[in-house]
Amino acid sequence: MPSPPVVFHWLPFVGSAIEYGNDSMKFFVACQAKVTFCLGPKGNNFVLVGKSTVFNAEDAYTHLTTPVFCKDVVYDVPNEILTVVKVGLSTDNFRAYVGMIEDEVEEFISSDVSFSAYQSNDITARGSFESVKALSEITILTASRTLQGSEVINKSFAQIYTDLDERQGTDNERLLCRVIQKRRVGGSAQHDHDMIAALLDQKYRSTDREDVVEALYQEQVKHFGVNGEPGKFRPLAYEDLRDLPVLDFVIRETLRVHPPIHSIMRAVCDDVPIPSTLAAPNSKSEGTYIVPKGHVVLASPLFAQMDPAIWRNANKWEPSRWNDPEGVAMMALKERLTFGFGAVSKGMDSPYQPFGAGRHRCIGEQFAYLQLGTILFTLIRKMEFKLPTGVPEHNYHTMITMPKTPRDVHYRRRQFD
Ligand code: HEM
């Protein structure tokens, strides 16, 4: 049996994995593991739903996650233990979490210095905030309040988490930067089919979508307005989140175009054949590849979610695609176990898998929707937003995909108190 073709081979000695450029690659460099990219929905399905005795997540990740999150946390514990966390993710808890998240967001914008224009209670005053700094703090503060209790909340705690992610960029990041810069200058024709080429090709810049911001606000006016009085709204309840399609589509589409986890890896524990339907779907030959034990396989939610062969205008951020009865997005939605906001996706052969699939699929999907929805809901209710420099490009050098600078957001308060 032939070995699978090498997708990308930048440095002959260390193999192709190093180009990933995160600290995680220390692992690949150390063992000179080879990575087989299994792209598209079929590739994702092959890697993510494959047998756990053959594909192992802990072995692929622990070299990255354990130094960051410490021993006995995340991939340094047996997978079964993670199910304990699900106890905090019940519907009853979610009902309570909505109010807590709203409170935290309000507290933040009422006290953080970047929202001083909001605090001035003057609707003609404009301010701006650094999106990653402010939204990371809001995310950590709201997650800590709901999942870890009010005792752990303070701003330095939020900063520690931001630093954890930023700290990922070290020597390997510099190497990745050099690879990317070299390709940008010299062109990347010979690498057309590798992952870095795919990532470099993505064009995410788009213009402001004030129409969507307005639609989000009008959705609130319609469902939560009190006697038609401007700026008067009733509070949000967990059940309301199921009936806010614009908010739902905005989050869904954002996770399609900007999935925080663009690639998912598994260490291969036993020689594994790649079915010809995946390795060579258009070939008449019967041959199949074997990925040898010790290699790594990689699936990519980003690749499937941005594939122009699957999605119409794949590069365009267009929330309304989730409302198109003929569209791929609607089909991905119909595959969900239960319909509605926060429902869990089956995500086996789906082209939309921001939360992964199979045994290691995210246990926090519903919480993430709840948290993102409530934060966005609370901010939109209080302020208008503009992106003065457009949607930032992606920075793939951090553990979780982040927006590059400039990434300031301009705001204006909607109503006087
Ligand atoms: C937008 C937010 C989120 C995204 C896009 C996301 C994405 C993902 C993805 C793609 C995986 C699969 C990794 C793999 O297969 O190797 C995953 C796993 C996981 N996620 Fe999330 N996640 C999010 C939020 C959360 C939250 C809020 C929690 C906790 C409350 C959480 C807890 C976990 C855990 C514990 C796993 C590991 C599951 C396992 O290995 O069995 N995630 N997440």
From TrEMBL:
Task: Check the record and name the InterPro entries matching this protein.
Answer: CYP450_sterol_14alpha_dmase, Cyt_P450, Cyt_P450_CS, Cyt_P450_sf
Entry-linked Gene3D superfamilies: Cytochrome P450 (1.10.630.10)
Domain of life, source organism: Eukaryota
Name the Gene Ontology molecular function terms of this record.
heme binding; iron ion binding; monooxygenase activity; oxidoreductase activity, acting on paired donors, with incorporation or reduction of molecular oxygen
| Keywords assigned by UniProt, alphabetized | Heme, Iron, Metal-binding, Monooxygenase, Oxidoreductase
Protein family (similarity comment): Belongs to the cytochrome P450 family.
Statement: the UniProt record of this protein carries the keyword Metal-binding: yes
Tell me yes or no: is Heme among this UniProt entry's keywords: yes
Q: What is this protein called?
A: Cytochrome P450
